[in-house]
Design brief:
The chain is an alpha/beta fold. It is built from six helices and nine strands, in the order ααββαβαβαββαβββ.
Length: 211
């Protein structure tokens, strides 16, 4: 299968349908080899616009969702971004491309997924640091971040994650149980948080292991 061609066609369609707006998002979507992130038996489906199983009962988000979240996060070159829910590492790789010389810090609760994603991201040359941990605590050691996003759905965005983003920074997350919405929070300089609600989405629930 010609993966490069399939990827080009996919991104062309995402642009036509309005799912990719920012040039950095387009560049990232055109570059990251999604087929390297899905299980071998799913490779042929890697450039269809749909979620795919990645093991441990988890799924890699559909390409249009990764693109939409990257547009909403709107990271700049050089940014340091916090991700909660590494999964297979695909979304982190897209963010890594979008921040260029910046760094992505990613927290994953499932040790096997964290290890595999970390090895894969290293092999592919992405500057993504992966840590096994509970995303409800964020990753305080590297705060403040320029932005953050979640790829699993809590009932509301964890306070720790909001607090670890600098004033002016954004947080993109699916929130809710059952009925989920994509939200974007913006931390203002005066300490208040602006909230916008975007479309209905479906993500795996954020695991509340250690509460
Ligand atoms: N962005 C990923 C998709 C991940 S699916 C990708 O591109 O593949 C959501 C991930 O969130 C799963 O890997 C799941 O294990 C993880 N997760 C669920 N609850 C979590 C928590 N409390 N802290 C950190 N990660 C969590």
């Amino acid at each position: 299968m010609d993966f490069a061609r399939a990827r080009r066609d996919l991104v062309d369609r995402l642009i036509e349908s309005g799912h990719v707006e920012r040039p950095a998002t387009e560049r990232a979507m055109r570059t990251v080899p999604r087929h390297e992130f899905v299980p071998a038996e799913r490779r042929e489906a890697a450039y269809r616009d749909r979620p795919l199983p990645i093991g441990e009962g988890q799924t890699i988000s559909a390409p249009h969702m990764v693109a939409t979240m990257t547009d909403l996060l709107a990271p700049d070159e050089g940014d340091r971004i916090l991700e909660i829910g590494t999964g297979c590492g695909y979304h982190a790789a897209v963010t890594s491309e979008a921040v260029g010389s910046g760094t992505v810090y990613s927290v994953e609760v499932e040790p096997d997924l964290a290890r595999q994603a970390s090895e894969r991201l290293d092999r592919l040359g992405y500057d993504v640091r992966v840590r096994v941990g509970d995303g409800f605590a964020g990753w305080p050691a590297h705060a403040p971040y320029d932005g953050a996003y979640l790829t699993c759905a809590p009932q509301s965005v964890p306070d720790a994650v909001v607090e670890q983003v600098r004033p002016g920074g954004r947080i993109v997350a699916p929130v809710g149980r059952g009925r989920q919405r994509l939200v974007r929070l913006t931390r203002r300089a005066d300490g208040r948080v602006d909230r916008e609600t975007h479309g209905a989405v479906r993500f795996v629930p954020m695991r509340e292991s250690s509460g």
